[in-house]
């Protein structure tokens, strides 16, 4: 069984370092001339998958934009995950779950157990009940070759109040998260399966990412203000593990699949040039 780190490393080598979000929020559906309902959601998601799943390394559906339509929206999310993976893309499901005990285990089972119709290659999680509370997700990911991306340094303005707070050890909360993930990934080749989410808009972080040995998801590029040239300031010597993530910058080029492909190729070229 290949690990997620192995699969991601191979996908990036073959297709390039790019993650594209699938974020069907109401304003984007309207921009595409689609109705803000199940029909519009299904058309949007299928168009993105048909255009990009056979060429980008990672697709990242945002679960909330499907969940807002209830069970029918979740059914479309299931189809989106399945169709994306069948076309060769890895699926990072953006759910940002975080809980304790049996509840965290249930979340992990929903998204990381191959028996689930929502199973993805990897998920995002929140560590603010303690990194140890995420162990059920780490364990299930390891058992089935999945991945987990842990929020570390996010670009929202409220983030630093928590993430930069100093703990009793003298480290920030964010550095504590970083160090715990690095410890789990230690020795993994070619890449660990636990990643971090580090916003591309935050500039010099003052945090040490050098030992993470796992993928570093960099949202915030494009419409949120960051450019590929900003990645060096944020990630420094860890650029080789960065997975740039775009959503609106690519999605706003729709609804034509050919235009989505052109937009994805353009940002991928920019990222390749910046990452070296």
From TrEMBL:
**What enzyme category does the UniProt record give?**
lyase
Protein name stated in the entry = Orotidine 5'-phosphate decarboxylase
Instruction: Give the residues annotated as active site.
Output: 96
- Give a yes or no for keyword Lyase in this entry: yes
Per its record, what are the GO molecular function terms? orotidine-5'-phosphate decarboxylase activity
Cite the InterPro entries for this sequence. Aldolase_TIM, OMPdecase_AS, OMPdecase_type-2, OMPdeCOase_dom, RibuloseP-bd_barrel
Source organism's superkingdom? Answer: Bacteria
Q: From which source organism is this entry? A: Actinoplanes missouriensis (strain ATCC 14538 / DSM 43046 / CBS 188.64 / JCM 3121 / NBRC 102363 / NCIMB 12654 / NRRL B-3342 / UNCC 431)
EC number(s) of the enzyme? Answer: 4.1.1.23
- What are the entry keywords? Decarboxylase, Lyase, Pyrimidine biosynthesis
